[in-house]
Amino acid sequence: MYEKLISGDNHIDLTYCPADLWSSQAPAKWKKTAPRVEMRNDGQHWFVGDVDRGMWNGVGPGFLPYTKGSFDHIDEMKELGFEWNYFPGAKPRPTTPELRIADLDRDGLEKEVVYGCLMVNDLIDDTELRIWVNQMYNDWVADFAKRSNPNRVFPLAIIPNTDPKAAADEVRRCAKMGLKGGDLAFKRMTPPLYHPDWFVLWQASAECKFPISFHSTGFKAVRAPDTPEMEKEVFTQWRLVRSTLFQLDTMEVLASILASGACEKYPDFNFVLGESGVTWLPYVFDRCDTEYHDRARSLGFKMKPSDYFRRQGYVTYQQDKYLEPIVPLIGEDNIIWGAD
Q: Between 3.40.1700.10, 3.40.50.300, 3.30.70.270, 3.20.20.140, what CATH number should domain 5-18+97-337 receive?
């Protein structure tokens, strides 16, 4: 029997958000620091603070203008009718309800889980502003899902990542709005993910049946070119290194969640490693189990760390050539495909 696909990893990048999403509601103190759009000769640009991040309705999370030949899959989207128009009046496909549904139909997708504005919290230093920006997006995206098709489009909330209590409060607020889960950016979160202060968030997640996702945003330990001139010289090599290692940053998330004791304390808490790939997991399982037995049994877990993942964790992937023989080591029901 033919069954349509469900994608566990689709996106609304910041570049595609309504130009006035934050600026139309920002208090006076944040008018020049909240994300906003300003007109330039080549179209509208997103600004966060004083920094020009790039094009409104640009290419993906990099806010890039479309350049033929830069990305094969972007060229394919262009050939299929995706347009990048940076001027007022354009309709970004990802945030125009009827166009988003049309693209789901074109791709043969019955439903989708949608990550929003990856790395927006990395762009904002003011923690109070960060929380407000998250809330405004969550309000908008909950309404967007209703205007699109609430039975097919399931957006994730953006969860504040510097205040555990604020994060827990936002989980409860978003659950009441009908959102089904949230994404927590882990790169700049304080305290670190394995700290017990985050238990208040895991408790809220468990009580609200509101899984917390951690989407990969790039391996942070990669050595960058020494100078801007060197970056131009080795741009393609540097991009290949970053993209090859991109998904491995969630190794830190997996180890941190398992080490934190969150799964032991809250068995109804579920977490997702978004766009992480799969076939590296058994290695980390073995390392974590081995090191727990050797030097961390004082944590008092009732199971091996890896068994908590099999009980409460999930992972998404797009393509993974060596997946099939690994499935029994992960758990078939713990693996989710994503169209990205």
A: 3.20.20.140
